[in-house]
Amino acid sequence: MGVIMQAFYWDCPKLENREYQWWNYLKDKVSSLSSVGFTALWLPPANKGANINGVSMGYDPYDYYDLGDIDQRGSTKTWFGSKNELIDLIRIAHENRMEVYADLVLNHNSGADGDEVNPIDGTKRWTKFNPKSGKFPRNWKCFHPSLYETWDDMIFGGMPDLCHRNPQVYTELLEYARWLLEEIGFDGFRYDCVKGYGGWMVRAIQELRGIRKEKGYKPFGVGECWDSDRTIRDWLDETNAWSDNPVSAFDFPLRYRLRDLCQVYGYSLKHLTKSGTLLRDVPSQAVTFVENHDVVRDDPIITDKMLAYAFILTHEGYPCVFWQDYYTWGLGQEDSAGGIAALVRAHEDHAGGSTSILHVDDDLYIMQRNGWDSQRGLIFVLNNRGDWNGVPVQTQWKNTRFIPVAWHGKNDAATPQEKWTQEDGWADFWAPPRGYAVYVPQF
């Protein structure tokens, strides 16, 4: 399905000395990311934020249509750059066969130009918005509590919540999504804080159809439903009912299992096969990840993180790689078999089809991707022991040579041996100490 790069993290423009230049900085990375095998960029919110305590990451939307071309809220550019620089980044990504996803913050707004009393409950709130773009001006009628709906799912950060049941709000947000697709060039959306509003709003956006080069297309979508597997699946069921362009969701339950894999001594690999994750239960709708801009601040994976990346980049789902892991903390290693880059290449070249678990015990996990079309499949070995570990397994390939294309071990840089399967498909596959190995068939 491809591999996403989450191309930002909290305060990234400042921490990397790229304030107001992040879009330009990303442009210089697109070609190498594409050559590795990445197929999409997930960008931070492009809209002008409230910027109340300094320039913001955009999760406090003020003017949806100001993408860095209007002098307001203390600057013309957003923290990431100008509208033209964003459009140029998207153009370059498309030229390199990569999609670009916008972070869509629809639950709440911030930075209002004035406060006003909501007559429904008599409470004064900052809900009067007069953005300089002149598009989507808002007042108390656009927020909760509203004449159209008095009950609200979730309040975030004390910011006023938009009431999507108001026809004006509903229509404006659909038009905004259309504008991002058709006029700015985005290919899809990451929906922020989806527990704060009805899934029908996301479904309506997913039902939009864009036109590009005289051809229609459907936007990709993934929701941030930060909760249990059951809650996420309920949200998916609600949102995707009767939809012919279903949205996906981030697999938070899998992420926490992978955290424990990396950091909990004696973690049994049998847990990776149990239900309770999107990958296990609804893999076609799972966007898998190891770290993101939120969890890394409060609950980061500190040790043996490559085990987690090896898992998501060999299995089903749509894997997403975190910028800091790849670049800041040096796990990309584009010239090494032991980094994320080698796993991305293996994913794109070989990780097709369904999954068959060939062996699992507390310390050893061996999986087969069965292959589909040009992706002919692979064998993945995950080892939780402190020495080399492997067993014979029966694969679907007979009399076939396998070579290792990606591997990593704790304090052991040895290359796994090539393997040949017997006439009945049996062969022994091994992985380094506290590590993994990915083998691919040669035809």
UniProtKB/TrEMBL annotation:
Residues that hold Ca(2+) 1 according to the record: 107, 161
Cofactor(s) annotated in UniProt: Ca(2+)
Protein's UniProt keywords contain Hydrolase: yes
List of catalytic residues: 192, 224
Molecular functions per Gene Ontology: alpha-amylase activity; calcium ion binding
Gene3D superfamilies: Glycosidases, Golgi alpha-mannosidase II
InterPro entries: A-amylase_thermo (IPR013776), Alpha-amylase_C_pro (IPR015237), Alpha_amylase (IPR006046), GH (IPR017853), GH13_cat_dom (IPR006047), Glyco_hydro_b (IPR013780)
Glycosyl hydrolase family 13 catalytic domain sequence ranges: 2-347
Residues that, per the record, bind Ca(2+) 3: 363
Residues the record lists as binding Ca(2+) 2: 152
SUPFAM superfamilies: (Trans)glycosidases
Superkingdom of the organism of origin: Bacteria
One Pfam family recorded for the sequence: Alpha-amy_C_pro
Biological process according to GO: carbohydrate metabolic process
Calcium keyword on record: yes
The entry's keywords: Calcium, Carbohydrate metabolism, Glycosidase, Hydrolase, Metal-binding
Sequence similarity: Belongs to the glycosyl hydrolase 13 family.
Name of the protein this chain belongs to: Alpha-amylase
